[in-house]
Specification:
Blueprint: E1 3-12, E2 17-19, H1 20-24, H2 31-38, E3 42-44, H3 53-68, E4 77-81, H4 92-95, E5 108-111, H5 117-131, E6 137-143, H6 156-159, E7 165-174, E8 180-188, E9 196-197, H7 211-215, E10 222-223, H8 225-247, E11 256-259, H9 264-274, H10 285-288, H11 295-305, E12 314-321, E13 325-332
Parallel strand pairs: 4-5, 4-6, 11-12
Antiparallel strand pairs: 1-7, 2-3, 6-7, 8-13, 9-10, 12-13
Helix pairs in contact: 8-9
The structure holds oxa(dethia)-CoA.
Oxa(dethia)-CoA binds at residues 29, 33-34, 37-38, 115, 156-157, 160, 196, 225-226, 228-229, 232, 262-263, 266, 290, 320-321.
């Protein structure tokens, strides 16, 4: 059986840095509150329309391919995880083709699984490679949150948390069953959809976008923060253990743990519950905030570039987010 190996990783973040002090000027909030409750010090906001979700995804993808020593023409499938596609349709996996030189009309999958999108994408890519269907998969997680946020005091719980960015991985087959993706687990519980959601614009309104729906704020994300927090700190450890068991590994075998960067308090609580030393937990939320489907590949790519994560290391990845959705991957990088 073939395993899916990570041939390369890359990331791209917008140039514009928005600090907590910048937010203090437009929202009734404080740097102290944001740092204490979330660990976030700054985030990036995209310079739209140039830094679109698909543009940022393409930059991350190019970096991942360069690291892999592969060409854009080698890619035979694109999976794009995002909740903030450039357009309602077509999806970003199609639009990203305009920034890249793929060879032939390769398939384009968009997946909308919010903060768990990259983990779901890793499972898809692993399955495609195991089946022999594709041999060089580009998996992108990219997000623009900044243009969707309610940047007034009414939206301060979400406005201070989310940020923009992109990360990507190139996956290829390996005949060495001890390397690459060793196990994956993904789950969803749709009864909680409305605890973290964005209601509009929606086809359930007779006219999809009206002044009335904008005035009611349906287009802003809503998050029941405490509720989401409570579920996250249960699901992260549970699902990581599930994949570790499938891989025949234990928490102690892990060299690194890369959680979705939701909130530093969630990361710390999960690390403590699992008994993972903080030195093994990758966290960059202080720089980028929560970038949803992009957070794991950005963190992973950075940790490879700065020399922390090395070839052969055992890496545990876990995510939890809107849906609710959650999942984990164990990979011998
Ligand atoms: O990406 C995956 C999904 N997302 C998550 O996993 C996020 C999960 N949730 C969280 O990270 C946290 O719940 C938040 C960071 C969103 C909020 O932290 P909290 O400690 O749960 O605060 P809270 O919502 O219970 O609010 C506490 C107080 C409230 O004031 P009162 O009612 O006690 O007077 C809020 O109005 O903090 C207030 N507050 C703020 N104050 C200053 C909420 N947002 C802010 C803010 N600045 N930005």
């Amino acid at each position: 059986m073939l395993n899916a190996k990570i041939a390369g990783l890359g990331h791209y973040v917008p140039k514009q840095v928005v600090t907590n002090a910048d937010l203090e000027k437009i929202i009734d909030t404080t740097d102290a509150w944001i740092v204490e409750r979330t660990g976030i010090k700054e985030r990036r906001w995209a310079d739209v329309p140039e830094e679109s979700t698909s543009f940022m995804g393409a930059q991350a993808a190019k970096a991942a391919l360069a690291q892999a020593g592969l060409q854009e023409s080698d890619v035979d499938c694109v999976i794009f995880a995002t909740l903030s596609s450039d357009y309602f349709f077509p999806g970003s996996a199609c639009v990203v083709q305009n920034f890249m030189e793929f060879s032939g009309n390769i398939p384009a999958y968009d997946i909308r699984i919010q903060c768990s999108g990259f983990v779901y994408g890793l499972q898809m890519a692993d399955s495609f490679i195991k089946s022999g269907l594709y041999k060089c998969i580009l998996l992108i997680g990219a997000e623009i949150q900044s243009t969707s946020l309610n940047k007034t005091t009414a939206g301060r719980d979400t406005a201070v948390i989310f940020g923009d960015g992109a990360g990507a991985a190139v996956l290829i087959p390996s005949e060495n069953e001890k390397e690459g993706i060793l196990a994956t687990s993904v789950h969803a519980e749709g009864k909680y959809a409305k605890e973290l959601w964005c209601e509009g614009p929606t086809p359930l309104d007779k006219v999809r976008m009206t002044l009335e729906s904008i005035e009611s704020g349906k287009h802003f994300p809503y998050m029941n923060g405490r509720y989401v927090f409570k579920h996250a700190v249960t699901r992260f450890p549970e699902v990581l253990k599930e994949s570790l068991e499938k891989a025949g590994k234990t928490v102690d075998d892990l060299d690194w743990f890369i959680p979705h960067q939701a909130n530093l308090r969630i990361t710390e609580a999960v690390g403590n519950q699992l008994g993972i030393s903080p030195a093994k937990v990758i966290s960059n939320i202080h720089k980028y905030g929560n970038t949803t489907a992009a957070s794991i590949p950005i963190a992973w790519s950075e940790a490879v570039l700065d020399g922390r994560i090395k070839r052969g290391d055992l890496v545990g990845i876990a995510a939890f987010g809107a849906g609710f959705t959650w999942g984990s991957v164990i990979v011998r990088y």
